[in-house]
Amino acid sequence: MIFCLMGPTACGKTQLAVELVKHFPFEIISVDSAMVYREMNIGTAKPTPDILQKAPHRLIDVRDPKETYSVGDFYQDVWLHIEDIITKGHLPLLVGGTMMYFHAHLNGLASLPKGNLDIRHHLQVRGQKQGWEHLHDELSKIDSVAASRIMPHDQQRIQRALEVYYLTGKPISSFQRHHTAPRTKYVVHQLGLVPEKRTWCHQQIAGRFSNMLAQGFVDEVMTLASRHDLNRDLPSLRAVGYREMLSYLAQEISYDTMCEKSIIATRQLVKRQLTWLRRFTGLHVLFAEANNLFDQAAVWVEEKLGK
Q: What's the CATH code of the domain at 216?
């Protein structure tokens, strides 16, 4: 039996998961494409060391920021951890907001062609010279379905979609319609944590970003920017908040503009996460701002465990 706790950014997933671990034999597996990176703690809202001591999270700090971590990497890693947890007699609790990872876990992976370094380099050079929005426009003409799902600044996914087309002459969306069969060995229960009111969600996002700044987010990104082996085109440094902070540190935007852009980008991320959530079938939804949130979640877990 596998449990999933999914939801948009700033809705209290970590806090709820930690409470659930206190009362049920759960072990947490992080489902977050930014928390996989070491040295990126504040801007990813990574659980603090004291929280991790009480409720360890797997798949946190598994990559250096100079490395990439794909949905395929997650798919392989998460099943290794699931099997290990179940072998120990515990229950896996997958927690996070990277919906593409959840989708892969629940539905399997699309059978895509292997990458081509020459094509990737060519696209990288074009992206740097012409801008990724230009390449996104090109993708829109080739594959409007994929382009509608990819943000104009999402270099990694734009590059991969164009790479697949250049390699095969077929749009990546045609491959994505056909997935390898998901692993159905275990029953999967899905709990969605969503905001009931948009105003509450916006307040949470603004408060969270203010706390990040107070905790030293500027210094965290300055340290990353000082590393000569990192650049702003890496997937790690394109994470929400980091790319805006890097623009501020490069004196391209003001401090106030950086704050505004970071909050707006987080709101946009939440909208995309909520859109993803609507696609999941069998999802039990709870409102994140409920006063008795843990009680509701605990009743749901007990029901699934047959207690």
A: 3.40.50.300
